[in-house]
């Protein structure tokens, strides 16, 4: 459960720093090394959330980390090693099939990306940029997004693969297929009891799976022009997310913190998932390369902060 981060630039004969090691230890619920399989990561992070979604709780899974550290691989995976999206949906449908005797279920999903602070529908890219609206009850909706209802995991896998090809991907010096946008897969499970009761009860559980764009340093990705602007937008929304996480993790402290969810589209969409009624898992990715020491350090601090958020799930 521990990560020890060593500073590669520490020379043994550096007199000024002889007594100051920059070695840091972080403790998490679970730490995976390079030998961990997709199945292991899925079972220890996400599998336990599925039962909750079916009984009407919300759940969120984030993939976070610097560019090129493997977030899209964890979330989407490859054909022979499917990632969290596909394994989760598989298990969700299996669990629903087992419980259909007394309940009627509908499952709908949408897949969108936030690119340069605008929202695009990945299942129907021709629909242009979409708007975020808030209804009187305070839940966030995206106007005009395509919602697909299906209980066939195969069909969904194809949709996701197709949607992922529509994502904004560009080569940078750090990663040949760098995702330039945050992808959000939202699955909504609605259930009604089959027994006709007087008070008809409807339960709705939402599952968000978010593949964030990598945080990046222009010096490492050697970006210029348009790529540089994209990087600025990516870092801007990740900073807004970081600010929300900081404010939430300090809640209940001595001073009341204001949590600014309106700083970016990403945080507005995830308002419920962060501070609201939701079980949230953050999977932080770091690269073992010594050149990305700073990124790894920042990522681990960020993930540690997220670990301190306490929410009451009702």
Automatic annotation (TrEMBL):
UniProt-listed InterPro entries: Kinesin-like_fam (IPR027640), Kinesin_motor_CS (IPR019821), Kinesin_motor_dom (IPR001752), Kinesin_motor_dom_sf (IPR036961), P-loop_NTPase (IPR027417)
Domain Kinesin motor, chain residue ranges per copy: 1-309
Record's keyword annotation contains Metal-binding: no
GO BP annotations listed: microtubule-based movement
Keywords per UniProt: ATP-binding, Coiled coil, Cytoplasm, Cytoskeleton, Microtubule, Motor protein, Nucleotide-binding
Coiled-coil residue spans: none
SUPFAM superfamilies in the cross-refs: P-loop containing nucleoside triphosphate hydrolases (SSF52540)
PROSITE patterns: KINESIN_MOTOR_1, KINESIN_MOTOR_2
Name the record gives this protein: Kinesin-like protein
Organism from which the protein derives: Spizaetus tyrannus (black hawk-eagle)
Gene designation per UniProt: Kif19_1
């Amino acid at each position: 459960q521990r990560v020890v981060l060593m500073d590669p630039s520490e020379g043994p004969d550096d007199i000024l720093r002889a007594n100051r090691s920059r070695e840091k230890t972080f403790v998490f619920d679970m730490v995976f090394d390079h030998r961990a399989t997709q199945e292991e990561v899925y079972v220890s992070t996400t599998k336990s959330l599925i039962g909750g979604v079916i009984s009407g709780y919300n759940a969120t899974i984030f993939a976070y980390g610097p560019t090129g550290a493997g977030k899209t691989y964890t979330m989407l995976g490859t054909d022979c090693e499917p990632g969290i999206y596909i394994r989760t949906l598989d298990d969700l449908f299996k669990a629903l099939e087992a419980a259909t005797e007394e309940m009627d279920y509908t499952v709908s999903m949408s897949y969108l990306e936030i690119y340069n602070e605008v929202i695009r529908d990945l299942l129907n890219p021709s629909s242009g940029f979409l708007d975020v609206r808030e209804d009187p009850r305070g839940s966030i909706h995206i106007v005009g997004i395509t919602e697909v209802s299906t209980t066939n995991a195969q069909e969904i896998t194809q949709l996701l693969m197709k949607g992922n090809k529509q994502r904004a991907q560009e080569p940078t010096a750090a990663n040949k297929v760098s995702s330039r946008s945050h992808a959000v897969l939202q699955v909504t499970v609605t259930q009604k009891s089959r027994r006709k009761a007087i008070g008809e009860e409807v339960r709705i559980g939402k599952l968000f799976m978010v593949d964030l764009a990598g945080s990046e340093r222009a010096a490492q990705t050697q970006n210029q022009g348009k790529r540089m602007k994209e990087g600025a937008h990516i870092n801007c929304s990740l900073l807004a997310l970081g600010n929300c996480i900081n404010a939430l993790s300090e809640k209940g402290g001595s001073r009341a913190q204001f949590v600014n969810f309106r700083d970016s589209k990403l945080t507005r969409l995830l308002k419920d998932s962060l501070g609201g009624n939701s079980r949230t898992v953050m999977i932080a990715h770091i690269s073992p390369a010594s050149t990305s020491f700073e990124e790894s350090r920042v990522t681990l601090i960020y993930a540690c902060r997220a670990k301190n958020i306490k929410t009451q799930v009702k």
